[in-house]
Amino acid sequence: MTGMTDRAARFHALHTAGQPLVLANAWDPASARIIAATGAPALATTSAGVAWALGAPDGDVLDRDRALEHLARIVRAVPDELPVTADIESGFGATPADVAETIRGVVAAGAVGVNIEDSAQVGDGVGLRDVADQQERIAAARAAAPDLYINLRIDTYFRGKPEETVARAEAYLAAGASGIFVPGVADADTIGSLAKAIAAPLNVLVQPGTPSVAELAALGVARVSLGSWIAQAAYAVARRAATEAYTTGTYTALAEGDAYDFGELNSLLS
């Protein structure tokens, strides 16, 4: 990829089957700084966590400008050399041209990768986007940023159509996707089969009960994402602590949450 920045090139190179890139997803500058300080090789955002932090639900409700402004703050919070990839839901726009505009904003914010999902509003609910339509959106994104790592999320396991997964992956790769993200799978045999069938780096979403990173590596996975789980856990601590304070008048939840030392966190962000 001619003229690719060092960060973009390093991010592409981190996607290796059998040596997965592990991404603990951030949702604001503080979580980004904390994750970067652990020695993370790259940083990813979670669209759900970002939406929640900005007071919106996940699912194409947050507007593009607020999302990109927040992304820029996250990028500025981490070391300049750390590659950042942004979860941009389905692209923050109805048309391929809209997606291209979003991608240009992502690059301007300093990110070197994106996640784009293939769910869409269908009638009164959410379903899978038409493959040809999604290919046009991917092609527009690729044209807008030739060096961007485009991780295409395929929601077939969420939408009850797992049999479409490989065909969609092939179509999306032909349109310009760099890698394929298949959330909703936790079975080792299924993950291994997908890794063999998809001719690109495979990304899986993990949660309690998913095979370990070492096991996923052996299955041929190239990228492991924690998604919104860290944000969910952080908000769960807030709920437990508040509930306890308002009911029993005690504060044990604060100790159970293994609170970050005030001085250490303040120093990290200074």
From TrEMBL:
One of its GO terms (molecular function) is catalytic activity. It comes from the Bacteria. Gene3D superfamilies: Phosphoenolpyruvate-binding domains. CDD domains: ICL_PEPM. This is 2-methylisocitrate lyase-like PEP mutase family enzyme. InterPro entries: ICL/PEPM (IPR039556), Pyrv/PenolPyrv_kinase-like_dom (IPR015813), Pyrv_kinase-like_dom_sf (IPR040442).
